[in-house]
Amino acid sequence: MDERKICFIACVTDDIYEQEMIKYISSLEIPGEGYSVDYQCIRGAKSMASGYNEGMRSSDAKYKVYLHQDVFIWNRRFLYHLLEIFEDKRIGMVGVLGGNDIPDNGVLYSAWNVGMAYACDTQDAGVKQGQNPKEGTCLEVEAIDGMIMATQYDIPWREDLFQGWDFYDISQSFEFRKQGYAVVVPYQEEPWCMHDCGRTKLAGYDAGRKTLLLEYPMFFRNPTYRQEDFSFNHELKELYDKLKGTIIGYMEQGNLDAASQCCQLFDDSDIMDSDLSIIKKIVSICEAEKQLYNQNRTWPKGEGTFESVRGTYNRAKFMLWDVERNRDNGVGQLKEALRRDMYSMPLLVMAGIHNSFHFKELLCMLAETVEGKGDAKDLQYLGYIAKQVL
Questions:
Q1: Cα angle vertex 275, ends 304, 334, to 5°?
Q2: What is the Cα–Cα distance from 282 to 276, expressed in whole angstroms?
Q3: pLDDT tens digits, one per residue of 116-157
């Protein structure tokens, strides 16, 4: 066991998110005295627990940070904070969001009432916040959210029980507590992490909830499983999937009008499907481009797949976060992207509206950049957007 090594472990399915996650890990300040950092990206995991077990067993690092591929550590001094917390050997695991007084029915995804994190659900960006521990302290919690979970001891993840993507985090919190370790959430002056979480996927949630209540009754006051406490609409999920396929088919054929008509059938602020929400935004971007440039620039007929276009949208979103936070020469990235016509102005505006934390300031920055470029159409479009927003 390497006492001065920190390993980040993530189950990954998306190259673009993996690269962005690693970018933030690589920019963390590394504590002195010979500490080192590495990461493991687990592909093809059967479940979150099995993937994390694979990473845990193949790393000799004392400290391990398990995180989602869509979690970006914005606090550069994260590792300093972590090591300071782990000076208390009674503390086994640390998270940035957690909960106390968790409900007896096991419906826990909305039960986090301690800590904070930046979050984006494809529609809005903001701060998810509960009680903030007193400055310089940690608050012991019953369980932590799986977006990021840091440990200083190795305890196997219960892949025998949780063979999907839910409840692995609650289970691991309970496993650490069974071993006598504290699970804590620290004070954060501002959120340490950004979770680009999208819409919650809960298809396998109820089965995991039942398993959790049966396996860990000692961690609930009165564990009660009732099927009526949670339901997942599988028929609606099938409808979403069919609608996605139809819209994608129309866009690949270059039939923007038909795709737009399909998008009018649903309100993407209500649906529980990240891809369908993003598809509607991309269709709106293409409509604006057609009006502004007399051509669809983001998804032209016969060019690209939904996955590649979604990747373009995500890269633009990541760049705008760099601009907002003044990281990695974000403004320089933006100017270069506009110079090379990497992103249309409707795409940048759409990504900014739904993902930025300070859109008005971002809009002014876009206007200044476009004015310097001398693009009259884009400047006129930004003027129109400004009137709508301001």
A1: 65
A2: 10
A3: 999 999 999 999 999 999 999 999 999 999 999 999 999 999
Percent of the chain scored above 70 by pLDDT? Answer: 99
| Contact assessment for residue 366 and residue 351, using Cβ atoms and an 8 Å cutoff | no
Nearest of 378, 363, 359, 390 to residue 288 by alpha carbon: 378
Q: In this structure, what token pair is assigned to residue 184?
A: 């804590």
Q: Is the pLDDT of residue 199 over 90?
A: no
97-99 and 114-120: which strand pairing? Answer: antiparallel
* Position 371 pLDDT exceeds 90: no
Q: What is the pLDDT of residue 277?
A: 95
* 3-state secondary structure string across the chain: CEEEEEEEEEEECCHHHHHHHHHHHHCCCCCCCCCEEEEEEEECCCCHHHHHHHHHHCCCEEEEEEECCCEEECCCCHHHHHHHHCCCCCEEEEECEEECCCCCCCCCCCCCCEEEEEEECCCCEEEEECECCCCCCEEECCEECCCEEEECCCCCCCCCCCCCCCCHHHHHHHHHHHCCCEEEEECCCCCCEEECCCCCCCCCHHHHHHHHHHHCHHHCCCCCCCHHHCCCCHHHHHHHHHHHHHHHHHHHHCCHHHHHHHHCCCCCCCCCCHHHHHHHHHHHHHHHHHHHHCCCCCCCCCCCCHHHHHHHHHHHHHHHHHHHHCCCCHHHHHHHHHHCCCCCHHHHHHHHHHHCCCHHHHHHHHHHHHHHHCCHHHHHHHHHHHHHHC
Q: Which amino acid is at 141?
A: V
Is there a contact between 173 and 93 (Cβ–Cβ < 8 Å)? yes
As a whole number, the mean pLDDT across the chain is 94
pLDDT given for residue 75 in this prediction: 97
CATH 3.90.550.10 residue window(s) in the chain: 2-229
- What's the pLDDT tens digit per position in 316-361? 999 999 999 989 899 899 999 988 989 999 999 999 999 999 999 9
2-229 homologous superfamily: Spore Coat Polysaccharide Biosynthesis Protein SpsA; Chain A (3.90.550.10)
pLDDT for residue 70: 98
Over range 89-104, report the average pLDDT.
97
The number of beta carbons lying within 10 Å of the beta carbon of residue 326 is 9
